[in-house]
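Hi there, hope your week has been kind to you so far. Thanks so much in advance, here it is:
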Amino acid sequence: MMRLLAVIFMLASACCVAELRAQCDAVTVTFANTLGEQIDGHCYTDAIVTPIGSPAGGTFSGPGIVGGQLSVVAAGLGDHPITYTVDVGGVQCEVAAIFSVINAPSFAAYSDLTQPPVYSVCVDDSPLTLIGQATTGLFGGPGVDAANSLFDPAVAGPGNHEISYFSVENGIVCESYIFLSVVGLGVYTNSSGTSGQVASDICSNYSNNFYLVGTPSGGTYINESGQSVGQQLPIGELGAGTHNYTYIVNGLDCSVEASITIVEPIEPAMLGPMDTVFCIYDAAVPLVMSAPANPPYTAAYLAGQVVDTVNPEEIYNVLGAGSHDIIMQHTEANSCSSVDTMTVYILEPPSLSFDAIPDTVCLTSGIFEDVTGSPAGGVLTGPGFTDDTFDPSGLTPGVYDYKYYYQDTLGACEDSITFDITVLTGELDVDFERTASACYTFSDTLTYSGEFGTPPLQFEWEAPLGLIEWDIGDTLVVRYEQPGYYDVTLHVTDALCRTGTITQTLDKGELQVTASPDQSIILGESADISVEAEFVLPDLVYEWEPATALSCTDCQDPIANPTETTAYIVTVTEPAGCTGMDTVVVNVISDLVGILYVPNAFTPNGDGVNDDFVVSGNAIKDYEIMIYDRFGEMVFQSNDISQNWTGEFQGTALDPGVFMYVVQVTFLDDQEDFRKGSITLIK
């Protein structure tokens, strides 16, 4: 409900009063709460109300108006005229609206509560009846049963709780509050009481600290002997049994009790199997676990993973060889637990090897004593072995099989290896190869190529009459000053007992060279001739005689172009002076000189057959050809018989037709030939 008081100040003449009053009548004032809802009044406990004038742009005045806002507290209880002044079309209009402030209703009575402003109840007290002052109202808050106006401390729980009371007076909704403190006591895992409450049964070996946490704070903790105790519980000192505590809030007629029961751990669990040493190839063995029931939760862990067997191969693949702890944990419903640990040992099979005796021995090698494999301590079996002694003298030459067996000191892993030993006689098959020139001026390189037996080998070379340049065991470099036949002897001994001797005769002569085969050419042609030395040697000197018609006389492969049959003699000399000679004959055929062939047609169509006009002959010294079209214009000319006519003139293909040619040649024997005729170009 709003009452408007309009005071209009007239600035125009009296004849316009009615018109100006109509303009001010359109001015309105409303009020909104903090939620933006339109209201006419407020409870005294409310803070700020927003006055709204229409049209906008004016100012407010009256009780509680501060900075354009209405402060309910500043206005106070009662009805307050709020004036809105605004300029409307040049007219100053004032409109007043009444805003009511009423007192908030209070609790008329609180059953069993007599100590305002904060009232305390025990968490285990019976529900309290809430009585409001207003004729109609509604209670709300933690633990409140609004329908029955009851507050239940057990439902609200320990702590300070804000209880609200809503009522409606003259259409105005008001709310008032009161704080109820519920006193409680709990056992928690930390002093702040923010963790979950601890169960009533606590294991004596529980590692965390426990605290008595009373609400509200500031009270006193009393044990069952009536003594005041601290907040932290000494679990390790209390011992098994139930321990009761009382929490008294100073100055309040209320106390609560709490208790904790400490129990001893259950008996340790037992683990099996009894054998705890395994080789990685052993079969998996089930774990045998026993623990008290009621209710049991038992599990075994290896490296954080649950296991129910000892599987040596899997343990080795994940954790490797060595000792590993399997932990069995048994947990009761009250969090009491016990742990048992079994250490298992995973062993790798031994890595066996045997190199105490060479894999090849001689009958005369002697007796091998204190023979063992790796690791030491195994058993050797096979022909010639007696315990740790090996004697090959009683064996016949051949290959024998042997075995080395080993078991580790714990008896878990075992393995064996087999190997061969070859027993030989005292003979060694020796040989050497010659890798140098047979020319006496060259050094010979002799390299051992026989049986190597058991290294290291010892070499002894004998080269009478030779000059030894290099002796490095298996290789000998020797030189001779004269041609002839020379014996070289080699003695070889291997690391066991075998020996061998070989003698070879070296044939030291002149340098061996070979010229290319004899050739026949027609007069005017050329022949490729060459010479090869017995070995590919550097810095060879070549000399060809006679020098007639040769492209070079000091090269390995000259070109010969003689006019008559000629025998060429080549001499090859190596840097040390060793020489070799050979002869190659070039036969010249002169009765075929004077041949000339001129075709009479060609087909330059690009099919690869007869595309060019080709003049051929032999033994030609000078040559000239000229070709004319039917108008007498020369379309082709050349002095090179190897240059053919393609049927083009100045880069353009000519049309089919008949052309005239003139050819004049001079042969090597100075005879001449002159020809002319026609050539047909066909496409």
User: Anything to note?
Assistant: The chain has a mean pLDDT of 82. The first strand starts at residue 5 and ends at 8. The first helix runs from residue 17 to 25.
